[in-house]
Specification:
There is one protein chain. With 382 residues, the chain is α+β, with helices and mostly antiparallel strands. The protein folds into 3 domains: 3-97, NAD(P)-binding Rossmann-like Domain (Rossmann fold); 126-180, no CATH class; 186-380, D-amino Acid Aminotransferase, Chain A, domain 1 (2-Layer Sandwich). It is built from 10 helices and 16 strands. It has helices spanning 13-21, 35-38, 61-64, 84-91, 101-108, 133-142, 231-248, 277-286, 327-330, 362-380; strands spanning 3-8, 24-30, 49-51, 73-76, 127-128, 150-154, 164-165, 176-180, 185-194, 198-208, 220-225, 251-260, 266-272, 307-314, 336-337, 351-359. The strands form 3 sheets. An 8-stranded antiparallel sheet has the order 13-12-9-10-11-14-16-15. It has a 4-stranded parallel sheet with strand order 3-2-1-4, with helices on one face. A 4-stranded antiparallel sheet has the order 5-8-6-7, with no helix packed on it. A hairpin with a 3-residue loop joins β9 and β10 (198-208). α4 (84-91) runs antiparallel to α5 (101-108). The longest helix is centred in the C-terminal third of the chain and has 19 residues, at 362-380.
Length: 382
Amino acid sequence: MSEPLIILGSSARAAAQSAVAAGYEVWCVDRRGDRDLRGLAPGPPGTGVRVVGGEDYPQGILTLLDDAPSDAKVLLAGGLDGEVDLLKAIGFEHEFLTSPPEAVRRVRWPTALATIPKMPGLRRCKTVTTISFLRRLWRLAFGSFGKMKYLLKPQNSYGGQGIRWWSPGDPIDATHYLQQYVRGMPISAVYHCDGWSSILLGATEQLIGEPCFGASEFAYCGSIGPLQVSEAAREAMSRLGVVLTQRFDLRGVFGVDLIMDFKGDLWPVEVNPRYTASVELVEKITGIHALSPSDGSRKNKPSRAAVRGKAVVYAKLAGGTGGVPDLYELFDKDEVADVPEAGKAVRKGAAVCTVFASGVSRDDCFNKLKAMANRIYDRLGI
């Protein structure tokens, strides 16, 4: 009999597909309850899926877990990194397949990356959690904190939600912090670890704030890979994974968002101690199960395409004409995921679905993803 696994997050579909392929029997709670997620759960479609949304998210997860298998471990997807008290409550009843709550709290603290020792090829973003009296005097004298630009980031954000430019004079409350803005390519490194050792599974380019997918300025809207990096950059990413694992006692799969600047140096900006959006693409490219990479076998067939990509398509307007079309009529089932029920209304800025494409180059793949998004927008009437 398959081992049960509880998957929790804003969207559980990608993690659930990986878990099923790795031999788990999944029981999921997320905010969408999409058609393809319901088809992954055991028994009649949807019996292993619970949906919690609106004002009930995320605290409503605790009540829904009363129906979950009592002996199941928990795998975190996106959206719960900042909910440490909730994770601790879950931890009283269930063991985590990903990092435990205290490790999540420590590695997600705004200044956590500032404690990483200096390493070749890695740079550290300046981080500000409060504006001291001396900093206020500096700002009055020079108008800013020097020539640096800063982003104002929520402490519990995910997927770029709620990030905006910081203007000198804007306050920083207890739920936000400032992080130095670095020009370059946003990338994501994917790891599997056991609290001591760490394996770099792969890396992807991240698509951030692309208007063609309806994304806001800093919102995550896709990944393209495999990312070709120099041997020095790969060594730097590998060393970073080991240091993070040992310093914060990370477990299972996790991801690190970085900026690769124009000199090739890497600037870590955020650690995601969970199954991330880029993990799914790395699995498709390499054929390795991120949840169980140490078994020495590639249970998935690796991609033969030169480049693979995924994109999250966001609603540009609310509603549209008659809601979301039946996306299975527009695309093959391996080209689309996170599929809502046909006719469902979608609020402006919300994710409609995820699309997948492959190509001979990065630009070829990107253009195919863009064309797929346009087909959806044409059918939505926006």
